[in-house]
């Protein structure tokens, strides 16, 4: 069950923070509407990794679609292009 508290509970922020655990964030409301989430830093780091993975996967999928639509580039040609671009 989600742990939902009004933002006014932050007056006693120590109590609010004691309720935060991995897999159990505290959601703070303002005027009855969800406004903030307080989560354990390790859980946040995992969340960042998931977002980075999704972004990478999206870019890889775009590259795969491009290769299928416009043809693939030989690995030696890719290496040559990268060397020309980044060798100075």
What does this structure look like?
With 88 residues, the chain is α+β, with helices and mostly antiparallel strands. It folds into 2 domains: 3-39; 40-71. Helix content is 55%, strand content 17%. It is built from 3 helices and 3 strands. Strands 1-2-3 form a 3-stranded mixed sheet, with no helix packed on it. The model has no long low-confidence stretch (mean pLDDT 95).
Number of domains: 2
- Helical region count? 3
**Helix-strand category:** alpha+beta
Let me know the average pLDDT.
95
Strand order of the largest sheet: 1-2-3
The shape, in one word, is elongated
| Helix-strand pattern | EHEEHH
Largest sheet: 3 strands, mixed
- Spatial extent as radius of gyration: 23 Å
Helical coverage, percent range? 40-55%
Total DSSP E strands = 3
Distance between the termini: 57 Å
- Poorly predicted ranges: none
- What percent strand? 15-25%
What's the arrangement of secondary structure elements?
Elements: E1 3-6, H1 13-18, E2 26-30, E3 33-38, H2 41-70, H3 75-86
Parallel strand pairs: 1-2
Antiparallel strand pairs: 2-3
Q: What are its keywords?
A:
single chain, 88 residues, alpha+beta, 2 domains, three-stranded mixed beta sheet, 3 helices, 17% strand
In short:
By secondary structure, the chain is an alpha+beta fold. The chain has helices at 13-18, 41-70, 75-86, and strands spanning 3-6, 26-30, 33-38. Helices cover 55% and strands 17% of the residues.
């Amino acid at each position: 069950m989600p742990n939902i508290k009004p933002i006014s509970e932050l007056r006693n922020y120590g109590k609010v923070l004691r309720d935060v655990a991995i897999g159990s964030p505290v959601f703070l409301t303002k005027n009855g509407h969800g406004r903030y989430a307080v989560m354990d830093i390790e859980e946040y780091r995992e969340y960042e990794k998931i977002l980075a993975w999704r972004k990478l996967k999206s870019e890889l999928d775009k590259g795969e679609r491009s290769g299928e639509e416009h043809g693939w580039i030989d690995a030696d040609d890719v290496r040559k292009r990268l060397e020309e671009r980044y060798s100075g």
